[in-house]
Structure formats: C-alpha cells, structure tokens
User: Fold these one by one.
Assistant:
Number 1:
Amino acid sequence: MSDQEQSSAPAPAKADQAEAPAPTKSDSSLADDLDGILDEIDEVLETNAEEFVKSYVQKGGE
Amino acid sequence: MASIKVVGLETEYGIVHRGVDDPNPITASSLLINAYLARCEATGRRPATQRVSWDFEDESPDIDARGYTPVGARPPEVETHLVNAVLTNGARYYVDHAHPEMSTPECLDAATAVLYDRAGELVVIESMQAAAEMLGSGQELIAYKNNSDGKGNSYGTHENYLMDRNTPFSDIVAHATTHFVTRQIFIGAGKVGSEIPGIGVAEVPFQLTQRADFFEEEVGLETTLKRPIINTRDEPHADAQKYRRLHVIVGDANMSQYATWLKVGTTLIVLAMIEDDAFDPKIAFRAPVQALRQVSHDVTLSRPLRLYDGTSATALEIQAEIVMAAEKYLETRGVAGAGGNGAWAVLEAWRDTIETLERDPMELSDRLDWVAKKALLDAYRERDNLPWADARLRALDLQYHDMRPQRSVFNRLGLQTLFDDDQAGAASVDPPDHTRAYFRGECLKRFPDAIVAANWDSMVFDTGEAPLRRVPMMEPTRGSASHVASLFDGCEDVRDLLTRLES
C-alpha cells in the first residue's frame, strides 16, 4: 500500500469544539490492490492455519 | 430534553500466550498490562502510570434500570485482586473476565471517542512489545481486537452513553433496539461461519457481525450469557438523579476508525432523538432477537424483517428512514445533545454509507470492516479456489484483528483513518480536554504518589496527613480543562490543589 496517496475529504463545518476530522481517503479501491495485498499477506499469515484456528480459544467475557 | 452526551468505549481483547505449556488467560492478561506499567515506570519517558487501585465503593452493576435488583442476581464479578490501572490519559486498563480490557476516558463526541479508542490500541501494542522483552525468547503475548473465538465464546466491545435520566427506559428499549438491530449493516466486523449450534459454515458462510449469534434476549441485566440487545445495567458513575448511563453490549469491535466513528456518532444522534421524543421510524420487530440474527446472516442486505404490525422492512430501509429523521432532528433541534458540531459530518457520512450500501456494498471496502474482510476472503477464495470451510479463511478472519502491527491483516488493507499515530500517541498519554477525565489524568500526571484510589466519579488523595481526602466527580462534564487547568498552574502539591478546589 506504500504507493497509495492520501488526500483529505473536505473538512466538515467549523465548530468551537473539536470537529470530526475528515477521514483520509485512499485513491484506489481495495479491490484494485487486492492481488498485491494477497502476496503481502501470504507472508505474514500464520503458517499452520488449522493449528492456529484450533488453538484460538478464549474465555467468555462480557 | 436531550442532554449533552458523554461517551466511552470498553474493549475486551482476545489474548493468546505462546510458548508456555499451560497458558492461563488471567495470568496472560495480567502479564500484558503489568509489562506496560513496568515499561512506563522504567523508561520515564512519560509520567509514571500509577498502579492506582480502583475504588470499588460506588460500583453497583446489579442495579437494574427497570427499577429493581433481581433476587438471586449474582454479585459483581469483579476480581479485586487483579491488575487494575488508571492511565494518565484518564483511561482504565485492567483484567476483566480473563481478558485485558481497555476503557477509554470520557469523551464528548464520536471523533474523540475514536481517537481514544485508537490510543487504547497503541497502549495494547506497546504492552505486547514490552511483554516480549520481559518474557524472553520463545514466549509471546498476542492481543486480538475481536469478539468471537469461533468456538462459542464471546467477549465484548461496549459503548457507554450518558443520557438524561428523565427519558423513560421503555422508550430507550423500543427505539434503540430499532437502531441496534439495523446498524449492524455498517458496524459489523464480519465473521466466517456461525456460533449457533447446528448452524455451520455451509448455512452461513460469512455474516456481517461477530456478536449477533450470542444474543438471546431483548432486554436484560446479563452480560456474559443470555445476552440482551438492551442491557439494563443502571450504574451511571455520575449523579444518578440526573443521569442514566446506557451500557450497550451489542456492537462489534471495529478495527476501522471510520466504522467506529459511525457506530458511535449515529448512536449519539439516535439517543438524542429518543430523549426528545423525535425518533423515527416508530416500529417494532415481531421478534427482535431473530431480526438481529437475520440482519447479521444476510450479506445481501435484502432480507425483509417482520414487524409487529404485520408489514416488513429491510435493515437498509429502516436505516434510511432513521437517517431522514436524524437530518430533520439536527436541523430543528440542533446538535447539542447529539454529539456536538461533529454530528453534521456523521450525518453526511451516515447518509452516504446507506446510499452506497444500497448501490454496491463492496465500494465501502475502504471504510467498513465486514466489507474489507469479505473482499479479502473472496479474493483468497478465488485465487486459491478455497471453500468457505477452509481453515485459512478462518485464520484470516482472526488475523484481521491481530494487534501486532507486523502481523495484522487489517493493517495491510489501507482503510480510511481519522487520526494518525502521532495524534493517537499523544492521546495515550494526555486526557481529553472537555470532561472530568482531564482532572483525573492531570492529577495522575502531576501527583502520582499522592493518589490512593480512583474511580470514574471520584478520586482519593493522600496529602501526607490523616485523613485521606475524597474528591467526588459526579458531573462528567465538570473537571474539564476549562474548569480546572488554571488550578493546576503553579500548584505545588496535592494539599495545595485541594485548597484551591475548596475555594
């Protein structure tokens, strides 16, 4: 994603309290970049998916 | 009348401890938090995070908003001997139900809530790094910001909204339910499969939310089983004559800052409308719990939900009507009770999101967690020809929420952000300006050794002579920078501060 440009959306109406900052937009849609991302993600994925999924157990919380 | 809203988010993180034979989540959670506290103290690059004890005197989670304390209600499941820290940004970082939990300080608007939620994430990330150094090679603590382990266990991400006590609770139940059932279409974090016994990945390959499967009641006091859409916990941590704190347990943890912003911002507006008797549409689901699950299980967003009057409407249609009512509300009543001036930006984004969902949800893959996750999983399925049951898809689902920056799948997808890490880093140390969190945080920064105990609505100081001094903070909007910043100026010690407070 390093060649993705960030541009600001127009700022919302001014206020005397901190206004919501404009979200940074990505130039290209996620779908266009996905092929490249998949390769990147391959490298950081847990090596044994089945083992990882099986061993991920949590205690119930609220 | 709609009152100024104060909002805070609590997140229970999933926790994994690798490299030990018999991992214990309570130990792991404690190690994680203690590692962070130790690093703060050791490096001295910020004021020492005070290992201040939590003042449990005012905690009463069993009081029910419907006006009674149920016979046989279990005592508060607070384990008082567990790690419980209050941070200099006013947040609370503690072990709860075998999870590390981060509660943001009190905020006045959705954007600030997002900022402090992200600040909490940075604290958790730094905690993992500190733990890695302490534990040595072979061991690792990993936190996950999600709500489901895929094995029937769930842990929550809760929103807390301060409301006017005068609002009839039945109105809140009726109308907040309408929003909570239908807002899932943009707040959901997505999940492979289902947790409902008998329903597997064949019937529900992918659903919008992590939490819907775990809800079984419309209204109730429980939070760990038979979870209700509307939780009746009545523990305002503030002047109980004036305020109610609505404790919302039915949302997902969001990695997307934009989704968190919409989740909180839209709900602020909805609650203001309810307070002012201006909420629309005034509908009721024939079976709210069923509707909650139906919305979550329907990736096409087109399933009609049965209403009490015999008609039906889709979640999209209902949200579109709520947005229209919200616009009318803000125009006629203003923003003061709806999250302040930031409400206009929320409204615009809300409307845009609904319209985009109507047109093509996948256009929101840079803003909504469930869409980003689905786009990713669809791409993997296509590239590697994977069935939904393939473990790699569930692994991706989990790793989307991995808090380690290098391993987080979410991090690689470039979703829109509201704040960068410099801003969030500052917020992990500095409290918000506009609420009592400011007073709490600044006291912790300046007089860490003099603070014996803290709570959301009080602090206890040790001035060096008996007795200990308790300062109540029953008004969440008092204790802000504008009220007390000048008190701290040139203030020498706690005795000095207390004298100034009294005058």
Note: The first helix of chain A runs from residue 30 to 44.
Number 2:
Amino acid sequence: MKRDAEWALVAAASSAWRPRDRAGMVAPHPGFLDLGEAGRVRLHEVVEQLRVMEAGLDAEGLSATGRAVLGRVRGGGRP
Amino acid sequence: MTDAVVDLDVHLAAIVAGDTAAFAAFVAGAEPLLRRALRAFASAVDGEAVVQETLLRAWQVAARVVADGRPNGLLRWCLVCARNLAIDELRRARVAAAAEAELLARSERDVAAWVPPDPLLRERIGACREKLPRQPARALSARLEDAGVVADRVLAERVGMALNTFLQNITRARRLLAACLRRAGVFVGEEAV
C-alpha cells in the first residue's frame, strides 16, 4: 500500500467512532479493514499515543474512547 | 497484572448501583491497560473496537463480578473479555492456534510490563494545546467534543475542512502535542507515524 494512502487510513481509524455490526456489537473501523498488517500495528501505536493525550486534556481523565463509551452508557437504553 | 494499577474495584459498588461518574473513573483507569493488552493482536484486531465493546459489557455485567479477595476484579474480567474478543477475531481471520497462544503470552507480558502515563502530562499538555496552530487545534477540538458519535467526514464538514485536510490536521495536532510534551520532559509513546 502506498504510504500516503496508509497514512490517511491510519489517521481516519484513529477516531473513536466505530460502526456497529448487525448484532449491535462495536465493529472495526472501515479503514482498519483496508490496512495491511504493518499499517494496523502503526494504527495501534498512534491510537495509544493519541488516547493518552486526549485523557490528559479531559477534566475526567477520559480519552475519546472513554467519552464514546460513557456517551452510550449515559444515553440510556442498551449501550 | 502489573502493580502499577490502583485497585479500581473501589468504584465497583457505585457502578453496580448505576453511578455513571463512578464508571467514568473506572474507564479512565482501565482503558490504557486494556489497550496495552491488545497490542499483541494489533496486526489482526481493531483494538479500539474491542476496548469499547469490552467496556460497554463491563457496565452491563459489573453486578455479576464476584469478589475473590484480589484487587481489580472488574478490570481482570475486562482483560479476559478483551482477549476473548480478540481471539474471536483471530479465529475469524483463521489465525493458527499456535500463533494464538503466542499472542496471548505476549499480551500477558505487555500487561505485566505496563507503566501508567507520566502524571506530569496533565500538567503540561494544556499549555501544549494552547500552542497548536489554529487548524490542527480546531480539528482536535472537533474530535474531542464529538467523542466518537459521528465519523470524521461529518466532523470535517462541521469545521469547514475537506476530509483529507481534517485528517492531516489531526495528525499534525498529535505530532505537535507529542513534540511539545517531549520538550517538557514528558514522553508519550514512540513517534508512530
């Protein structure tokens, strides 16, 4: 995969947004599915770094992942 | 499990009673370790999806966690859940059983070696964020405020950026924050991209 294309997929999949599958489970980001193995490993490193920084900026110490989960929990109904 | 993790079961009774603030405190403490536990599976498993699914299930099953005299019962449940979800993905991808066992062993080593983020980070990152150029700061704020509700193409539209520009600005924001923190003596992972 060309580096430019991989970079954009990694950046996109670094979001905390994730789709749901038909069973309602949190599903992989579409960008993740298009990445090769090396790109997926790089994605994990990027997200690990990003989430630590996001948590450092948040009053409750929550990263975007934490906010996404709490958003579903606080929204009521089946999270 | 590493001794670096405080006992998050202090929040368990309140979580069982439906206290979302207590669950937020649990999530803040648990998420980094869960993510690290999934690093071994990164080439085949979207760790973000597994972390979110695991934490959502933790909210639902907290009442069923049985005290066993050891700390972090709910977090240990989460680690088992996350690894099982990762293994399910490996099997869907038809990864060999031997490879599966090696990845589980690596995951356990990663968890045992995990070190919490530098507490100085919270002190320094606010000032680093203030130094971000306008467009990276706007893109980062859009992601933080949205908290994973909508996809980036929607966020990009909201801030008046093309999607690719938005993603470039997110990447710039991450790299600039990491560089600023490094200059302040705080290291946040290796330079990944």
Note: Chain A touches chain B through 54 residues (CB under 8 Å).
